[in-house]
Structures are given as structure tokens and as C-alpha cells.
Amino acid sequence: MAGSAIPGYLPAASLLQALLLGMSLLSSYEGLRQEIQRLAQENEELRQLVQLIQENQELKLVLRSRGSSLGFLAEVTASPRMLRRRTIKFKDAERGLPVEGPLLGASPTVMGNPEGHFHFAIDRGGTFTDVFAQCPGGRVRVLKLLSEDPANYADAPTEGIRRILEQEGGILLPRDRPLDTSRIASIRMGTTVATNALLERQGERVALLVTRGFRHLLHIGTQARSDLFDLAVSMPEMLYEEVLEVEERVVLYRSEPGAGTPVKGRTGDLLEVQQPVDLGSLRGKLEGLLSRGIRSLAVVLMHSYTWAQHEQQVGTLARELGFTHVSLSSETMPMVRIVPRGHTACADAYLTPTIQRYIQGFCRGFQGQLKDVQVLFMRSDGGLAPMDAFTGSRAVLSGPAGGVVGYSATTYQLEGGQPVIGFDMGGTSTDVSRYAGQFEHIFEASTAGVTLQAPQLDINTVAAGGGSRLFFRSGLFVVGPESAGAHPGPACYRKGGPLTVTDANLVLGRLLPASFPCIFGPGEDQPLSHEASRKALEAVATEVNSFLTTGPCPASPLSLEEVAMGFVRVANEAMCRPIRALTQARGHDPSAHVLACFGGAGGQHACAIARALGMDAVHIHRHSGLLSALGLALADVVHEAQEPCSLPYAPETFVQLDQRLSHLEEQCVDTLLAQGFPRSQISTESFLHLRYQGTDCALMVSAHQHPATAHSPQAGDFGAAFVERYMREFGFVIPERPVVVDNVRVRGTGRSGLHLEDTAKAQTGPPRLDKVTQCYFEGGYQETPVYLLGELSYGHQLQGPCLIIDNNSTILVEPGCQAEVIETGDIRISVGAEAPSTVGTKLDPIQLSIFSHRFMSIAEQMGRILQRTAISTNIKERLDFSCALFGPDGGLVSNAPHIPVHLGAMQETVQFQIKHLGADLHPGDVLLSNHPSAGGSHLPDLTVITPVFWPGQTQPVFYVASRGHHADIGGITPGSMPPHSTTLQQEGAVFLSFKLVQGGVFQEEAVTEALRAPGKIPGCSGTRNLHDNLSDLRAQVAANQKGIQLVGELIGQYGLDVVQAYMGHIQANAELAVRDMLRAFGTSRQAQGLPLEVSAEDHMDDGSPIHLRVQINLTQGSAVFDFSGTGPEVFGNLNAPRAITLSALIYCLRCLVGHDIPLNQGCLAPVRVVIPRGSILDPSPEAAVVGGNVLTSQRVVDVILGAFGACAASQGCMNNVTLGNAHMGYYETVAGGAGAGPGWHGRSGVHSHMTNTRITDPEILESRYPVILRRFELRPDSGGQGHFRGGDGVVRELLFREEALLSVLTERRAFRPYGLCGGEPGASGLNLLIRKDGRIVNLGGKTSVTVYPGDVFCLHTPGGGGYGNPEDPAPPPCSAPQFPAFPERGSVYEYRRAQETV
């Protein structure tokens, strides 16, 4: 016995042993602790033994590890503080000490009928593991423990189960022995194992097998960069370690000469197998992988979504050779689009072995390897799956999915079916989701830079949490996105961490250090440090007050509490924006929702966020700190089956659709029956993935509320469901357009039978006041009562302000709000109106930060309305538009999203209209303009401007505008992007200053005539798509109206003078940031003894010079950008309107500043721009300009960045390729190499600077257009050599299957992208046409040529320039860019990312 190791305590140890033998008489684990403590008071030896163990941490760990009775004593006698190891890391920075046992003092919660067995629901998070256990007799136990504590246990879920079995059974269960499973009925688990492996890149070694010619396809991806203004183009590393190309090829069948025998794919499409799989050559390559230790494969072959045989053959061979895991993309997710399908297969191969190893290790902790226990894991879609069906690609949201299920099964029901917003605020990030009777799924989203094509709950993660860092930058309060993480954590953790939201709340008195364990500091044995938070905040407050007292608008200094309160308010506004976007994106009003708050930090902010969004209620579950575990207990088992399809949704296909749905339904039902569910507990729901033909906007539609009719499939009226949802989300339908089915899907659900029967104790008196503290609110400190949640009962009502504390979180009930304990024991907060506050016109940096968010939110919401109501592919799906808000002088206030070529350009357009029309602007007028001399970029970009009048004001008080790219407005070629235009009229319809709406009346007849006017010019056509033009113009007018409404609400809240003042303040803030950057640049040059004047020159391929001289004024922080010496206007379309140069300049200034700033008129205030009239950068009004927008803009950027020495030149081209004939048209821009810079290699195969266009997926390209993509891979050694290498361009080969006109509009075919600081230039581009007979023709940079079946266009794009002398010692390998621990994800993030990649 281990007790013998402690001399002198044998009698006490014997007493303890006897006590343990009789412990079954005791009612609980807590009762045992109390009994031991009682006996210790009566027995001096036992008391000394208990004291010895409590005071000797090392001894206690030894005893625990040996599983002895003394070790058990170490467990049960320790105080909650002593029970914790000193290595606790907080995921949720404001979470209090988790303890074992019930969280409520109410009557036991009964969940289902356990029949004498245990049911466990476990959420294994990154830091803590939560256990929700239903014990025999209906008792519920909850437990929270560290996910990693190797000194005490090997696996947290196993340890949690062991502790509860030990507590309930009264039997000592040593940790080193497998647990008896005879009384365990089920274990349900959600885990972040897959997520963490993906974030930390700690998965399996993987090789990618891909069709020959596509070895770099996943590296190139969509070719868009993730951050527009990151010159280093930081991108996540690939999951695979090696790539093997498979000799095989399948194409869609066309009855063309020489075509082979067609075969039918599972979509119904006819295919041609051009080359069978060469398994012989593949065998040796696979054996080589095995010899290098790679055991996991991802197989991704072209068109395998419909023709899976080739992948299956490869998979069979790989398994025969001994690969332990093979993920076939055709099985992982059989959906069209090879890039996201390929990423999904790679993620599956990368993560599944890691998950399997974890599951195997977990099972080893139990007798019989859990053979007779139902073990289920939560998947990303919110359904449970058996552990053998739990795979990597479906596991990434396993953890947060449980929380969504939890509030959907509790809050939604308790609130009477009112829609709910889930708000899960942790330490590093916040998860936002929505539930209104059905789970909201998305089918493609990115996590940690990996796009996963799989059903997943729409959980939107934003980089704002308790650990978000706080900054004061150029007069602006900034929250995040950087985080303090768990180590060092916030300043109050006593480890030298930075100032965070947690510190601000602590200073305000909203967190009580006494509620936290003493686990902080270097020895991890101290309480939270209020002093450290104050000290960190004082440093920032000094910056704030220095700015206030010496800045451009002197003001009174702020107190420490006012600074802390300012940061909290800014954090709240940052978290409101994604909630607004999530709801309004689908046509919902955020104020019509209840806020369901859970997670450790959310209770601090819930009232403020609900109030800001107009919500009147917050619901906080009594187990809010463990809601994900509770959700697992309430979740259903789900099995899904899905197949690709390419049938029209039409009466002639309804029978086939019913047959396919019926087949998938049988699969789901059979799988669930095999898992032991009776048929009565199984339900199925059928879905069709529908879209209008010719569009990419597909909706996964269920017909559960639309029963079958005589004109629909028997499975339901999917057509009616599609039209209803399309109308709700987008505001219109296209009744004349056929509907296409992309996928058929069935979701089978096995009802778990588990439910909660809540019985809460009724109040027996007023709530007991624990203490009174002081909390800071607007206006000063207020006495704030503190209550303990465990002591509150049904019916108790608490007036704000007050704090409600439980073991896992602190809930702040703000003044004007009232909390009530409802029948279930949950907290419901009624949110009252905010006390009126006065905001003046004088600059307040806190209000400035809030107004910055509000102005941006207005522009974003305008964009949502435009995207919802537009009809064209360009605006609705490619999101090629920008919306903006302007001050009374036409100066840009906010512009969202950031399409580089639109930055600042609309300001020129608005200001032109103000000067041009003067007094001829009246209420009810809406203007249309696209002319280059009026601030336009190129003619297809139509700008709609609405002046806004206010009662009592004679002039417009502000302006709103929206600019959208129209697919065709006439001209000499379809698409209005001719490569050889020489006059503006050849490029389409021109609008200098056109009243689109006059006196409130849409001028349809007049605008129609103007759009058709180019047809009067010889060789030109009027618009080729009038219907889309008119629909999109109406959508732009509607978007402007939304902006007017939102600014009107802002004026109603603050007053016109205040709103206009802050429009000016936010512009001044951007000006300050640019001045700071210019001063820093000038100071750096001065310190090196260099002049304050820099210059650069580069050339267009026709020899036209772009010359720039920059003169820095160090005192003023200003600069003159003088383009004198630039070449004259050209006979062609490379002329760039002045607005293009200004957009390029704003883009460069933002890149050079290096952090987020408001992108508005203020950016150009410190800058005087000199552009010679009649030059290529300020051409005559009649000059052709379409190439200037897409090509010359890139050269302007190269010259500006070169002058500042920021980085070497990137490819400097958009590589515009157009293909068309009488019945089709296609346009793309193609990636190249990015320039290297000081400290980074250039990224290969990516778009740079003024474009960020996504490229069409290869499978979509081949299915919709008469081409075969033969190659799409990196161009080796095309990047310039240097200390840091330039990025490589790409090689892209298109084989034509029909006669068509090919047009190319490209640059950098003569002048190579420059290197910098001794770096070598990148390779120039090359456009080759390989005729069917083998003849090779260099097409040059700009041409149109007829191509015929069998011809091949081979595009070699330029590489980026190198940086630094290549002869210098080689730099250390560039480490993979470190992404934040919790990168953004969800539909809101995907929307913004898509809009920045048009």
C-alpha cells in the first residue's frame, strides 16, 4: 500500500481504508469529502495526514498516480483550488474556475430513462474538456477538467468518465487500468482534435495524386490572395508533402471528329475516357512514397465526381501496396469543382489518421475497447456519427457544433420559436450562428486556409474575444484581430502579456479576481492581477491622452476607466457587424431575434450587444459554460447520402429524381437500422441542390414545407421551395430561366430519445446577496450587487446593474436591464433602452472608433442589398461591385468591400457631379456616370449616385453611391472589353452625367436609348443584355436607398451636425495614419543619410514610360507624387483615367501603412498628385481606356512600390483572355508571380495588387465551354533570383473544341518585372498558339485570332522579381506564415473574401 511510504501515519491510513470500504453508504463524492473532513477534526493523525498531503504538491501527485487510497484522499480532501494543476491554460479568457459536481442547487435534471446505466456527453475543447453525464436514477453530473494534463492523466474524456464513475460508484478506479464498461450505455463526444491538427499543421504526412498537368492546382487554388494589402502574400502551407501526377484523363463527351466511345457518368453526363489510368507507371511511384515513410494518400482526378472508376483503381492499387489511408475525392465529397473537392480530400487524408489514432487511444482506456458501448462523435453538420464513420473532412467544426445544437434544443424552444442568434464568446474568438427551426448549413467554407466542400453548420468565427489585443493607432481605438492567446495571455495573467479586452473588463470592475483560481504568474500560483491590467492600460491611456492634448483637435484627457470603457464599446461594435451581416444576408432583421449567450466571456458583453442590435432579450442557459456538452446529449445521430447530378428540374426528369432520392433514402435508413435505431425513430429529409441555368448561385433546398403536387416530384415540390427561398434571399426570381439540379441529397436522422425534463426549485424568498462591488458604466462607478447563480431560484428577478457569477462565467446585467430566473433555471435578461447620451461634434476617439464601424457597416449593408437584388452573374455571384458613403463635399467616408481598382475612384465621380450639376440637384434625383473624365475607371463600371437631402438643408448633406461591373454595355466586342479599341465609343455606352431617376421616376426609356446608342456607330453594337442592365441599375438604386435609410437612422440618433462632423473626423484619421507612415519613411532615409526624394520608372510593353518622383516633407508628413515625364496618351486602350492612378495610389499607401486604416478621402490629403494632362495617365476624353484599367494600373503600382523600395515588381499584368463565338463567351484573368521583398520570397501562382480575380474551376470550365484544360501548373524558375526569390508564374494550356475568337490583352511580354536591391527580374510572359498541325505562333501581348478545334493556346505568365543579391548567403528557409490561432470562417467571411476576389 502506498500509505506505507509515509511513516507514522499507518493507523490513519487504516482508518481511511475502512472509510473507503464503507463509502457506498455515502450519497455522493462531496459527501465523502465532508465525512473525511469531519473525521479529521476528531482524529489528530488523520488531520495531520490530510494537511501533509494538501501542503505537499509533489507527494499528492505521486499518490494520485499510484491510484492508492491515499491518492484518493489527495483527490477528495483538496480544495477546488488545490485540485487544479498549475498548467491551466484558459481558452476563454474570462472563464472562472471550473469545478466538479452540479452547477445548480436545484432538483436533479432528468434526461431520458437511463435504466441503470450511464450516458456521457463530452466536449473535448482545446483547453478544457466538459463532461455532461446522466447517471443511474436520473441524476446529472457535470464536470470540467483540463484537456491536457499529462502529469495526472493521459486522456481528459477518459479521466472525466473515470471520475464520475468513481464518484457515483464509490469504488476506487485506478488510472492505470481500463475502465469497466458494463454500466456505460453511451458516450457522445465533440472534439477539436481535427481542428487543432489543421490549425497547427500537425496532421498525417500526405501525398497528393492528381491528374497529369495539374500538379500545382491546389497550390494555385482560386489564384486569389487572402489579404489584399499584404505585400508578402502570406498563404497557408499545403497539407500534402509530395505530389504524384497520374497518367489518365477523362473529358466531357462531344460528338467531334476522332472522339472515342462515350461512357455514362453517375450524373447522367456522357464522358470520353481519353486515357485510361496507367497503373504500371504509378506502381513504382507509389512504392517510392512508401519508402519515404508516407502512408496516407489523397487522390484527386479530373471529373471523378461523375466518373469515379479511375480513382477507385488508384485506391485499390494503393491499398494493395500497403498505404494505411486513402481518401478518394469521389467518395469524400462527390461534388463538381476539383479545387474544393481536392482540398477536402487532402484534409480528409491529413486529419482522419490523426482522428483514428485518437479514437484508438481513447478506446484503449476501457475494457473491451468499448465494443459494447454506443460511441458517437459530433460532426460539423450538427449530427452524431459512429466512431468508425467519423472522418477528418467532417470533423473540423465538431467542437462548436455542439453549442449550436445545445441552444437550438433549449433556447429556441423556451423562447416560443423566436429566431435565435448564438453568441459564443471565448478568449481568442467569437462564434456567431443562427437558428430558426432548422440548422443553417453551408456546403463550402474555409478553415485555416483550407477550403472544405462538406455540409457544415454556418458558424461564423470572428477574431474578437476576451484575449483580443487593444491598440491606439493614429487616433483610433482598435480591438484585435491579434490575440494574446493562452500564453502569455492577458496582462492580468501575470506573464507579461499585452493589454486585452479581459483587462479592460477587469479594470471596470466587471470581473472579480476572487472568482478565479490562483493559477497565474510565473509559478502559476497567484490570483488575477488587477494591478497588471491597470499598468498595461495606463500605458495606452498615456498614448490616448497625448493625442487628445497635442493632436489636431485638442480635447480633455480621458480617465483610465473611460479608456477601458471605450475599448469595450469598440469591441462590442466589432462583434455586432458579423451578426448584422449574417442576418441581413438572408433577408432577416437582427432585432427580431433572441441572443443566446454561452461560452466563458460572452456574459460580459451580451446586454450591450443585444441593445446595439435592437434585440429585447438575452437567454443564458444555466449550463452555458458547458452548452456544447449539453448539445451533444441532445443531438441526433445523422447519416447523409449525396450524389452529383446534372438533370434539369422539369417534369420529364421528376421520375428519375424520385428514384435517386429513394435510393439515397434507403441507404440512410439501412445505415441507421444497422446502428440499432428502430424504424419509428428514423426520419429522412430530401434535398435538391438547385440553381438557375447559367448561374452559379445554387441553393440546397428541402421540400419539407412544400408537399408534392401533380406538377412536382413525389418527394415534394422542390421548385416552389426554391422560388420561395430565392425570392426571400435575393428579392426576385427568373421565371423564364430553366432550373438545374447539381446534387441530390438525403439526410437521415435517428432520434436519440434523450430529452431534458426540467424541474427547478421555486423561490423561497428574495435572492441572497453575496456582496456589493463597484462597476464602471457610462457616467461613472455604480454600486453593483453580486449574486451566485447556484443560489438563485425560479422566479427571482434582479435589476441591473448586477453581476451573476457561476463556476464558469460572469454575467453582467447592465443598467436598464432586468434578469429573471425562468422555470428551467436559465437566466432571461430583458434588455431595456440605453440611457440617452450626448455626443458632440468635437473629436472623441472612442466615438470615432464606433463611427468607423458604423460607417463601414452602412457600406457593407448597401452591398448586401445590391447583391441580393441584382440579377447579373457579375454582380450577384462574382460580386464585382463596391458601395460607398460620401460626405457633403463628395469626399469618400467609407468604401466596402475593398476592390482595389475601385478604391477612391468613386470619389472623383461624385465630386465631378457636384461641380458639373451645381444647383441642378434635387430631391428624388439619382445620377448615372461611367465616363473616364468624370471619375470613371472603364465603361462597364456603371456608378449610380444618390444625393441625400435633409429637412431644413438646401444642399445635399451626404451622398451614397454604388459601382457595379455590367457584363455588356455595347461596343465592338461582346463583354465590352475589346483588345484593339482606339476610341472610347468603341468600348460601349457612355454616361457623363445622366439622371437615372428624376423626381423619383426611373427613366427607363431614356437609359434604354442610351444603352443602345453605341449601335449607331459603324462596327459597334448597343448593349447585348438590356434586361440585366436595367435590373442591375434598379438594384443599385435600391442599395443606395438602403444607405440613405441607415444614415438617416444614424442622424436620428446623433443629429446631423454630429454625423457630418464624424465623417470629417474619420477622414482626418486616415490622413493621420498616412502622415505617420510618410514621416517614418522619411526619418528612416534621413537616418541612413539618404535624400528625402525618391524616384522610379518602368515601361509599358510599347515603350511608354511611367515615371514617378516622390518628395517627402518630413515636418508635415506629406509628399508630392509627381508623374511628370510619363509618356503621352497612346493610340490604343492602355490609357488610364486619372481615377485609376488615384486608386493605385491609395492601394499602395494602405500597403505601406501596414495595418487597417479607414480607406477614404483622408488617405490622399497629405499627398499632392501631379499628373501631366494628355499623358497615358490623364488622357483626352475620347481616348480608349479599357486596357488602362486592367494593365496600366498594375504598372503604376509597380512604380510607386519601387520608389519606396517596398518590394520587387510582381507580374504586373492581369493576363486577360477572352474566348467567344456566336453562342458563348468566356473571360478570365490569370495569376502570375508575386515580387519578393525584405524578408519574404514571392508567392507563386497568385494574383497581385490591382486585381484579385478568382479563376473558373477546371471542371466548371470544361463543362460549360468548348475547351479542355491540358495544363495549369507553376512555371518553373520564372521568378527572379535573389536573396529572396520572386514567385513563379503559371503555365495554362487550353485545347479548343470549337471554332472561336481568342483575344488576349496582356503586358510584361517585353519589359520584365524588375528585381530590387540586387535581385534579378522575373521572366517575361509569353502567349503561344499551337496549331493542330504542330505549328507554334507567338501571338504577342495583344491580339485577336480565330482558333479552330485542335488548336492549343499556351499562356506563360510573368514571374515576380527577386529581392537582394542572389550571391549573398542564402537566407534561412522562410517559415510558413503563421495564421492566427482561430482564423475567421463562416458564410460572412466567405462573402467578404469572395467580394475581395472579383
Automatic annotation (TrEMBL):
Start and end residues of each Acetophenone carboxylase-like C-terminal domain: 656-819
Domain Hydantoinase B/oxoprolinase: 844-1366
Swiss-Prot/TrEMBL keywords: Coiled coil, Signal
GO biological process: glutathione metabolic process
TM region positions: none
Coiled-coil ranges from the UniProt annotation: 29-59
Residue ranges annotated for the Hydantoinase/oxoprolinase N-terminal domain, each copy included: 120-321
Domain Hydantoinase A/oxoprolinase span(s) in chain numbering: 341-640
A Pfam family per the record: Hydantoinase_B
All residue ranges annotated as the Speriolin N-terminal domain in the record: 23-71
Single GO MF annotation: 5-oxoprolinase (ATP-hydrolyzing) activity
UniProt-listed InterPro entries: ACX-like_C, Hydant_A_N, Hydantoinase_A, Hydantoinase_B, Oxoprolinase-like, Speriolin_N
Name by which UniProt lists this protein: 5-oxoprolinase
One GO location term (cellular component): cytosol
Organism listed in the record: Fukomys damarensis
Keyword Electron transport among record annotations: no
Family: Belongs to the oxoprolinase family.
Leader peptide range in chain numbering: 1-31
Domain of life: Eukaryota
